[in-house]
Amino acid sequence: MANFDLMRELARDEGGKIVLLVLDGLGGLPMGDYTQTTLEYANTPNMDRLAAEGTQGLSHPIARGITPGSGPAHLALFGYDPIARPVGRGILSALGIGFDLHYGDVAARGNFCTVDENGLITDRRAGRISTELALPLVEKLNNIQVDGIQTFVRSEKEYRFMLALRGEGLDGAIEDTDPQITGESPLPVKAATQGSERTADLLRAWVEKAQLALRGEYPANSFILRGFAQDPKLPKFDELYKLKAACVAVYPMYKGVSKLVGMDVLETGGDFTPEQEFQVVAGHWNDYDFFFVHIKPTDSRGEDGNFEAKAAVIEQVDRALPTLLGLNPDVLVITGDHSTPARLRNHSWHPVPTLIWAPATHLPDLTDHFGERQGQRGGLGQFPANELMPLAMAHALRLEKYGA
Amino acid sequence: MANFDLMRELARDEGGKIVLLVLDGLGGLPMGDYTQTTLEYANTPNMDRLAAEGTQGLSHPIARGITPGSGPAHLALFGYDPIARPVGRGILSALGIGFDLHYGDVAARGNFCTVDENGLITDRRAGRISTELALPLVEKLNNIQVDGIQTFVRSEKEYRFMLALRGEGLDGAIEDTDPQITGESPLPVKAATQGSERTADLLRAWVEKAQLALRGEYPANSFILRGFAQDPKLPKFDELYKLKAACVAVYPMYKGVSKLVGMDVLETGGDFTPEQEFQVVAGHWNDYDFFFVHIKPTDSRGEDGNFEAKAAVIEQVDRALPTLLGLNPDVLVITGDHSTPARLRNHSWHPVPTLIWAPATHLPDLTDHFGERQGQRGGLGQFPANELMPLAMAHALRLEKYGA
Fold first, then answer.
1. Which of A47, A272, B87, B108 is placed for a possible disulfide with A370 were both Cys, Cβ 3.0 to 4.6 Å?
2. What is chain A's Cα-based Rg?
3. Cβ–Cβ of A391/B96 closer than 8 Å?
4. pLDDT (tens digit per residue) in A39-97
5. How far apart are the first and last CA of chain A?
6. Domains in chain A, please, with CATH?
7. Which helix or strand (DSSP H or E) is residue B355 part of?
8. So what's the ipTM on this one?
9. CB contact, 8 Å: A3 with chain B?
10. How far apart are CA B34 and CA B114, in angstroms?
């Protein structure tokens, strides 16, 4: 991990500009007749030139063998330790749907469920009801009023929703009401610490009204809550790295994680292409020291199992790269947050191709094509993703020497 | 880090002889028309033979991206963790100038500064006065007498000096008097813990006299102190590794760090060449199990920005290597404490070429030239510098098996 004390001690408030370009789910595997990975197969003359001039390697998002979700994977890329300082599921749910989380809000992940006449759970996912069927129920829950706090309920997907509480002095140390098995009732709301007793009382009042509101519905006639959490109070980029940082992303989740670490979120359209995202960077080039640029469709096409379509996204990014390079960044990092091999149609644990190009400070390695197998022989070796930020900072000459 | 408990449990008091040859600032970068690093460019037939026969890799002195000073970098090479067990700046200052530090001494780094008529700092470095101008002031401060302790003041360089206190029961937990900004007074001496109240009292008496002594001087009419520290009480080589260890170095700093870890410091002349240093090893070959040999000018020429001169030093070491090899060491490690690329004229964070040659136990890798890019593909991979000592011990068959 980026050692926080060390970063605070060594970070300078001047130095080069850094661009961290993240192609979500970049890493892959060969598939069927494709003997190369998607990245190896894609035609990427610009990335290959950067690989030849710079240095590449493989990063492990969390630890060997661990497949990360996008939240922890991005926190690691930003230099945090998602195991030691986890971000609660409720917060990730809120970020994932782009909910405008305020500092101090308590958020939880909810599941609609089915209970029998005795209140015992018969289906923890309410028959996996569709988002369409769930929406009116979400609306009912969202309209519940409890004295002393504001409450918000938003649909996540199908039977899943987010609950957020807003008010003075709330405490997220609340135990799950999800018993994890059928044949039992949803658990009563329980404070996990003394400090959260008041929050538990307020929540209890909400839960009572919410259970009433769902009476008579079917199959979603009850709900369970888990992953109560508040903003994890991660040190922010300006304080930790002395970087004025901006996020350019299309999906809400990535904007949310960026906000958690103190980045400004620049405006984008929901259908922006890589070229358009890079134009946003160009438009704010003089305002920031650090740009996090997030490309989503590499992951989506990987999850679709569409090898060719994922390669096409990588090629689209490659064609747009001259727009970024024309800005003369001092450090350009190209990586993914995790692998999403089309063959597995899912995130995976495979280490992620990572390229550092920093013409004033890099040591060119002996590779000349950006990809997994070249990365195995690259100059960066294999390393934990959360050591990438100190490396990028060093290459931008933004870290003082440690000790005499 | 070398796991101290494990080392104590497993180290045998017999086994092969180890030579740790450190070329200070060995790692480098290509520069201008030089497409190779200095080490790759240098003509090193002996090192290349050792690389072909042995195994090489790259070591990270502190952590990825962190540029170390020579003190922490050497502690890492000796198997310690310079972050978890840092050696205070005062101790490094004392070691750096070759001051004969006694166990229990409290040392601090001092800066001469300029204060205005209200005692507020106007320049934290007293106009960066020259060493020549500072020397008479250092002498004044050195002559101050305080009842109950001995005090020592020595010039470091320009406006910087070292202060050491010697006496019974001193405690180094004293806060900096450096407010870190101009426009404020030097801070009063303050004990950081209850145990250091007496030391703070004694120091306060010294500071009062010292402030008086500088009254009327200009621009160095005051001073600030920071990095109060005592010997960090690191476990010593004989206790930790069961090694009788000796240091052969020309510069005081490296002799000092070696003393901190319990090495005997062998006598050298201030202008000794690598060949002469190796002759010192030869002269004491039967007296020790472990020799740390330090070569300084690789770092100095790197800091000069002189690519060719740094290569010439490496070649000089290479030509002298037969003297070392003629002693038939069981393990010869050749490495640096950090990189000092001539292109950057400074220490850097780039990982350091490291070669282990141990004919009875090494696994030859597929490389045949000692250098950074070959190291990227070498048998040692990339590893933290403070894991080098256990590796060297193992290759000397000095570590027992762990567990049944």
1. A47
2. 23
3. no
4. 999 999 999 999 999 999 999 999 999 999 999 999 999 999 989 888 888 998 898 88
5. 23
6. 4-85+235-395 (3.40.720.10), 91-229 (no CATH)
7. strand B352-357
8. 0.89
9. yes
10. 45
